[in-house]
Design goal:
alpha/beta; 16% strand; 3 domains; five-stranded parallel sheet; 422 residues; homodimer; 43% helix; Rossmann fold; six-stranded parallel sheet
Chain lengths: 422, 422
């Protein structure tokens, strides 16, 4: 790994992958086609892109049953325990409607209401993660969303990965469709004969999925445009090089565009981690991917001080941050931008990917500067509640009317005055 | 106003205004130009679109002083009282970081952190509302945002509206720029010599502003793409026709594309409201705008039952909903989709626009189905906190490793196992 001394505050952020105009026009075409031809368009794109002609887009009970035969009892138990941890954590995010009252009879508040229907996109291929199902479906259920739909591109034999189906079934999701890509996003946004539209679309995907989500944004809501995974480890000389190296590699193996960065004031640690990474890399099954990721987006930044290292971390605003210093808790208040913060030597990042409970859907590519990981909040909306009594309105009518006239809106003023006309 | 009987559940939603490809390419050009030429691009667009050549984009103390001379003491007091109400309401939305602990030493939680810097776009012309300043700046301040920037297009004489400047100054906003349109959004997203970039952009604007916000989304966060204002009044035979008519007109006067709709099971009320609207419309200063809005987007829907009327309301998912029935509170639980809910006869919609406290930035065009009005939540982000103790990790290491291997991610498994290697 490259070791660089960071002496000035630098801009380390990657540019956002926004797709080409050619990709965008392809996506626009697919969306238009799905809106025009519905299911038939979905089936023909599935044939073209996934290599299988489907009679029905729906996953059947039979397919679910077969999926269970391909998942061991041990894995099933782990999925169940992970689901329990995730539910336990997300339950604590749930918010209640509230009101405030005033003596003049005014009542103001916020009504929290779950979304009616949400769609979850689960990518296919190497990224077909049952954990994605858990992380998206459970907060929706905790929020109280009644209709939860999953779509995922089928394998060449027309099936979905067993782990995905088992995870979905364990959570009680009944509506699962075998369709991927921009066409799946179009179907979720606009609906087809088989797939009723949803109100918000969640889940990661390739550039076509991302562009499609961007295009349907407004028609429906979307969660975020997720980029490749990232880890930043903030460590001092007390940290263990082998542990840091293993954690860096766990992100690097995701994707050639994943990013794994160590920030430390210790040159000694930097050198030791670089050596350990080389050593551990050798025996990894996904060695080629991890090596390419480290080559392109990996780095070890050596700062003068720990305080400076914290500033570099805030500049990077990483998806995952591990704090492996002598007193990690002490730094928590200084960390302004990170999707998830893993504290101490035993909070290896994979703990959060699967099991601990917090959501693994997190802001990437520096967007932790302004956005948050997935939570129950993303599955509800808030409506203001306003009740004014007669005395409350009488008391304030003139002020409201004056303000309205200041903004040139006479009918606003008159609406209030109409109540007190003789 | 048109009166229609609604016998079936109908789709009443307007299509989203998404701009033309020509407008989009204009916007892309402006964004690219601002990135390339910075302040100089801002000044030349301001000359072109706003008709004034500025030496400096910054609002000076002198300009603030002059603005105060153009605002009466009464208006100033109302602005201050409105600000107090808005602050009081939004303070109650504030959330604290939280943790949960387990006996094995595990600590999980969420850290709430304010955004570093936000930009507020205030439209110019007839829509230059001081209330916009209050509604966007106060939740940012309650959230703890340190840097708050306002941009707004200047008048032909190179000034900003007095009300906007006074409202901004009352709240202590120091960074105010005289620039509007897509160029302002580009500056907020990418920065120029004068304007440092922000992390999230708020505020309404014309189609160019909306398209620009859409384009910079990802580089920064944006609040929402706001459409024309809307009101739906849900009323039964106990409601007063003159009050409903006045409230409908208060939305209709906003914009020719604004929408004002009455939904009622009472044909008698429908007829009376239609008559009252005609009568009150006659003497309105913004009669032409209100009449066009009613013609194009106004309607009175008459249903068979009140329950059916509630379903029509949910279908419309209005920005503003007034419930003027005998027992409005009783219907609250049935209303699933509305930006703000005004209950009872004395909660005229303008009460919420300026004064009561809840935010007037609300989801339009049916997006209340999946989104919420502006709140303190939009000015903070949440980071997960994960601390695993040695015993906690030891207890779960094997399960996490198994799950990782199920997803084909060996390095994830090894990262956990690395902690317990001899």
């Amino acid at each position: 790994m490259k070791i660089e001394r960071v002496t000035n505050r630098v801009s380390l952020r990657r540019t956002i992958e926004s797709g080409t105009e050619e990709q965008r026009s392809k996506v626009l075409e697919i969306i238009a086609d799905v809106r025009a031809r519905g299911d038939e368009a979905l089936k023909s794109y599935t044939e073209k892109f996934d290599g299988v002609r489907l009679d029905s887009l729906c996953v059947t009970d039979e397919e679910i049953k077969r999926a269970y035969q391909n998942v061991s009892a041990e894995v099933l138990r782990i999925i169940q325990e992970a689901a329990e941890n995730i539910r336990d954590y997300h339950e604590r995010q749930k918010r209640e409607s509230w009101i405030m009252t005033k003596e003049d009879g005014t009542m103001l508040g916020q009504k929290i209401t779950p979304l009616d229907a949400v769609g979850l996109y689960v990518p296919g291929g190497t990224a077909a993660y049952p954990s994605s199902v858990l992380m998206n479906v459970i907060p929706a259920q905790v929020a109280g969303v009644k209709r939860i739909v999953i779509t995922s591109p089928p394998n060449k034999d027309g099936t979905l990965p067993a782990g995905v189906l088992v995870a979905a079934n364990e959570l009680g999701v009944k509506e699962i469709y075998k369709v991927g890509g921009a066409q799946a996003i179009a179907a979720l946004a606009y609906g087809t004969e088989t797939i009723r539209p949803v109100d918000k679309i969640f889940g990661p995907g390739n550039i076509y999925v991302a562009l499609a989500k961007r295009e349907v944004f407004g028609q429906v809501a979307i969660d975020m445009i997720a980029g490749p995974s990232e880890i930043v480890v903030l460590a001092d000389e007390t940290a263990k090089a082998n542990e840091i190296a293993a954690d860096l590699l766990s992100q690097a193996e995701h994707d050639e565009r994943a990013s794994a960065i160590l920030v430390t004031p210790s040159m000694k640690l930097a050198l030791a981690v670089a050596r350990e990474v080389e050593k551990q890399l050798e025996t990894l099954p996904r060695k080629a991917i991890a090596a390419a990721s480290l080559e392109n987006y990996g780095a070890i930044y050596v700062t003068e001080t720990l305080a400076e290292a914290v500033e570099v971390v805030n500049e990077l605003a990483p998806e995952h941050l591990e704090v492996m210093t002598a007193e990690p808790m002490q730094l928590l208040g200084q960390i302004r931008h990170a999707g998830a913060i893993f504290l101490g030597s035993f909070s290896s990042e994979p703990v959060g990917d699967y099991f601990a409970g917090p959501n693994h859907v997190l802001p990437t590519n520096g967007t932790a500067r302004f956005s948050s990981g997935l939570s129950v909040d993303e599955f509800v909306k808030k409506s203001s509640i306003i009740f004014y009594s007669e005395p409350a309105l009488k008391q304030n009518a003139e002020k409201i009317a004056t303000f309205a006239r200041l903004e040139g809106l006479e009918a606003h003023a008159r609406a209030v005055e109409e109540r007190f006309k003789k």
